[in-house]
Design goal:
By secondary structure, this protein is α/β, with parallel strands linked by helices. It is 24% helix and 25% strand. It has one domain: Spore Coat Polysaccharide Biosynthesis Protein SpsA, Chain A (Alpha-Beta Complex), CATH 3.90.550.
């Protein structure tokens, strides 16, 4: 656990394809969000979870309340850049690196989080997951100053998270063959059913 590393979890999306809030979906006895928190708490001193304005607040264990902050987007429906922009007031002053994750990563473990962190050297301003020819700006590690562009981009009418990367030194990291599921997200009911099967106790 490192107090200079903060994790931002974006959990305020509409989940239109899933039809329900993905953060609370159960995989075994734990929700997707709880599984993600278990892993990021091993490397991050502080966690910020951003929700949409109309979503209910999340219940957090009392012993973790000093490490996990819940924030809300000021404007609904503006996408992940809004969550990033509104999260900045919650970042601790000592944060030197910020993981940005979404809450639909059921297979994510601290192995991939550590891989991103190890790849993050002085040569880079951001290290992003790159898988199947797609760069994922929402499974990435950033210097805080990169994230401060989010509000500027919104003011310019730009909504794509990849806009954050323009003009910065960005390393794209591909998962090794033994970590194919780590970076896979979950957006539809059928993908949720597959994830439940993956976590179903073996008999």
């Amino acid at each position: 656990m490192n107090d200079r590393i903060t994790t931002l979890i974006l959990a305020g999306g509409r989940s239109s394809r899933m039809g329900q809030d993905k953060a609370g979906l159960l995989l075994g006895e734990k929700s997707v969000l709880e599984k993600i928190l278990e892993n990021v708490l091993k490397v991050s001193g502080h966690i910020v979870v951003m929700r949409a304005p109309d979503q209910p607040p999340l219940s957090i264990q009392s012993d973790l309340s000093d490490r996990i902050k819940i924030g809300f987007d000021r404007v609904e429906g503006e996408g992940p850049l809004q969550g990033i922009a509104d999260s900045l007031i919650h970042l601790p002053a000592q944060a030197e690196r910020v993981f940005v994750l979404t809450c639909d990563l059921p297979f994510l473990s601290n192995r991939w989080i550590e891989a991103l962190n190890e790849a993050f050297t002085e040569d880079w301003d951001a290290v992003c997951t790159h898988s199947e020819n797609i760069t994922n700006a929402l499974l990435a590690l950033y210097r805080p100053q990169v994230l401060h562009r989010a509000q500027e981009l919104l003011n310019e009418g730009k909504r794509r998270p990849l806009e954050l990367l323009k003009g910065w030194r960005v390393k794209k990291l591909e998962p090794t063959h033994d970590l194919p599921l780590e970076v896979k997200d979950m957006n539809t009911p059928s993908e949720y059913e597959n994830a439940k099967l993956h976590f179903k106790p073996k008999t």
